[in-house]
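Moderator note: this is an archived Q&A kept for reference. The question asked for a predicted structure of one protein chain; the sequence and the answer are reproduced below.
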Amino acid sequence: MAAFEAHCVGEVNVVYERYLFYKRKQENGETFDSFVAELRKLVKTCDFGAAEDSTVRDRIVMGIRDDTTRRKLLQTRKLDLKSSGVFRNVKRGAQGGGTEGPERGA
């Protein structure tokens, strides 16, 4: 069965899949939950293995539109996807709004 799927679907180009994942940012009007769900979908074909959760976490921090929310996330020392309380609290500020502008150094 796997050989048939490989024949029909073809091999996954991991470099291309990672490119799509890494360039993904929260779109105008996109909710935080939708953004995270899309990252979760994209990461499945990236072959990150055990680093999958930390890679999604990092992409959330880098791709979120709201600068205030990003700062809150960056100030959390042990931020992981299992810290649902952290993400639940900050997502209110990240519901598609947010400020755009040049990134400021930390």
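Archived answer notes: The chain has one domain: 2-94.
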